[in-house]
Automatic annotation (TrEMBL):
Biological process terms in GO annotation: cytokinin metabolic process
Protein name: cytokinin dehydrogenase
Keywords of the record: FAD, Flavoprotein, Oxidoreductase, Signal
Cofactor (UniProt): FAD
Catalytic activity: N(6)-dimethylallyladenine + A + H2O = 3-methyl-2-butenal + adenine + AH2
Similarity annotation: Belongs to the oxygen-dependent FAD-linked oxidoreductase family.
Length: 525
């Protein structure tokens, strides 16, 4: 049965041409899920959030279980034709990382967007919370918003987040999963106890620190190269009820980064009061006030940003949050005040709000709905995400925020530091060689009419200029959510980890069939 997958694909096509053909192609493949060649399924799987690349798969597979995923990958692995297979979480990559040309996309999320919610379909396992042990088991394609909703039913929640929750567990664990909690809890990949993974030979393996540890570490941050995550066991903590969310402004970069670094250093002092979330962003133009990170500045805080800075100047916004329970509500003001006292922001620039924990975590979704209503969500996104060593962040500010950017940005620019000791050095993710490093994220959009934002060509070129500048200035950045097209660039990215990365690939995906959209390895027949 070497070509069962190819044969199934042919039958799927025949069924479209000859409706009523009395054969179920899934029987041939031995799966419960469904393989679809319907353009309504194939087209969305050819695209992603970036809207910058397009690769059409032969078919989209909707699995019902980990066994289905294993069966499909095994069929691809044993096929005598090279047949790539890519897991697609929620397709929120920027440069086609979850796409695969002439292969099969395994649609892991329960997404309606990719069609398929027919009445006969069964679904992958629902999240299961182990409240005494404080962890939960979730399907690899589960969206973080659903993970949150399930855990909150038990008064528990994951510790480490991304800013946006409509991303899949497998998708963020294949990168790192970072947000303002990372300084304290580490990235999402540091908050996973165990995984079930279908490796590129079609075997389903459980891995953890103690069981198949090499696979466990390789898969975390592994860009989908070694296997498809079908289950993750995620660490939980008691869920806070409310959040005090504060923004303060700086015109002085070193005061801004000094305060950010002070705040993230508090994690190392047990018992010491600290904020639970530390992020920040750069404001080079007032246009930012109208974009998706800035709803905060709207009334009842009707303050003009320009009142804080001379024309043409750059402002920095520190964004911090403190979680609390209603039972301790009376002390929250004092706690926040005493933490703020030690900071050096512009004293008249404190913006504060108080909201439910759930609403805080899901904050970006509100902006998404707003942008969608204006037709500004499904547009090209030439994003650039960089990890920058602390020792070079001031130079980066001079050269990029105050230099290359000019006075328009076409989207938010996030900047926040993280502690490297909260990252597992044995994982696949690459970060700078310093104890503290920053994320700088240029989250640009290109509007359809081309008036509200700069053009795609302009922004793409600016991203190149930023990378060139870093190279020439000797700033050893690492791309987060990396995108390269040449193997030499990947070798540079992984540095001394490259040989190990290749060894893991040989062991777990010898035919190089997995996640080919990352463009790291070429086919191995
Ligand atoms: P996809 O785009 O579907 O897949 C990404 C990669 O992972 C592909 O190579 C794919 O093959 C692989 N993959 C997917 N599922 C699996 C699986 N189950 N097993 C193995 N491999 C798999 N990131 C952050 O860290 N922090 C943020 O705050 C953040 N905010 C974001 C906000 C928005 C609006 C967007 C669009 C992205 C954001 N990201 C953030 C980036 C995001 O984490 C990554 O793009 C992530 O890969 C998206 O998840 P996804 O489920 O859409 O993955």
């Amino acid at each position: 049965m070497e070509n069962e997958l190819l044969l199934t694909l042919v039958i799927c096509r025949l069924i479209i041409l000859i409706p009523g053909l009395p054969i179920d192609p899934m029987d041939l493949l031995g799966v419960d899920g469904k393989l679809s060649v319907d353009p309504n399924n194939v087209e969305p799987a050819s695209l992603d959030f970036g809207l910058l690349t397009r690769s059409q798969p032969l078919a989209v597979f909707h699995p019902n279980s980990a066994q289905d995923v294993a069966q499909l990958v095994k069929a691809a692995y044993t096929s005598n034709r090279w047949l790539p297979v890519s897991a697609r979480g929620h397709g929120h990559s920027i440069k086609g990382q979850a796409q695969t040309k002439n292969g099969v996309v395994i649609q892991m999320s329960r997404s309606k967007e990719v069609g398929m919610l027919d009445s006969v379909r069964k679904y992958p396992p629902q999240p299961r919370v182990w409240s005494r042990e404080r962890y939960m088991d979730v399907w690899g394609g589960e969206l973080w918003i659903d993970v949150l909703n399930s855990s909150l039913e038990y008064g528990l929640a994951p510790k480490s987040w991304t800013d946006y929750l409509y991303l899949s567990v497998g998708g963020t664990l294949s990168n790192a999963g970072i947000s303002g909690q990372t300084f304290n809890h580490g990235p999402q990949i540091s908050n996973v106890h165990e995984l079930d993974v279908v490796i590129g030979k079609g075997e389903l393996l459980t891995c953890s620190e103690n069981q198949n540890p090499e696979l466990f570490h390789a898969v975390l941050g592994g860009l989908g190269q070694f296997g498809i995550i079908t289950r993750a066991r995620i660490s939980l903590e008691p869920a806070p009820q409310r959040v005090r969310w504060i923004r303060v402004l700086y015109s002085d970069f070193s005061a801004f980064t000094g305060d950010q670094e002070h705040l993230i250093s508090l994690h190392a002092q047990p018992g010491c009061q600290k904020f639970d979330y530390v992020e920040g962003f750069v404001i080079v133009d007032e246009g930012l006030v109208n974009n998706w990170r800035s709803s905060f500045f709207s009334p009842p805080n009707p303050v003009k940003i320009s009142s804080f800075v001379a024309t043409g100047g750059v402002l920095y916004c520190l964004e911090i949050a403190k979680n609390y329970h209603e039972t301790t509500a009376e002390t929250i003001d004092q706690e926040v005040e005493s933490l703020l006292k030690k900071l050096n922001f512009i004293s008249t620039s404190v913006f504060a709000t108080d909201l439910l924990y759930m609403d805080f975590l899901d904050r970006v979704h509100k902006s998404e709905l707003n942008l969608r209503s204006k037709g500004l969500w499904e547009v090209p996104h030439p994003w650039l995400n960089l990890f920058i060593p602390k020792s070079k962040i001031a130079e980066f500010d001079k050269g990029v925020f105050k230099g290359i950017l000019g006075n328009r940005t076409s989207g938010p620019i996030l900047i926040y530091p993280m502690n490297k000791d909260k990252w597992e050095q044995r994982s696949s993710v690459m970060m700078p060689d310093e104890g503290v490093f920053y994320l700088v994220a240029f989250l640009r959009s290109v509007s359809d009419n081309g008036e509200e934002t700069q053009s795609l060509e302009y922004l793409t070129d600016q991203n190149r200029q930023i990378l060139r500048y870093c190279d020439e200035a000797g700033i050893n950045v690492k791309q987060y959510l990396p995108h390269y097209t040449m193997q030499q660039e990947w070798m540079d990215h992984f540095g001394s980890k490259w040989d190990w990365f290749c060894e893991m690939k040989r062991e777990f995906d010898p035919k190089h069939i997995l996640a080919t959209g990352q463009q790291i390895f070429t086919p191995n027949l």
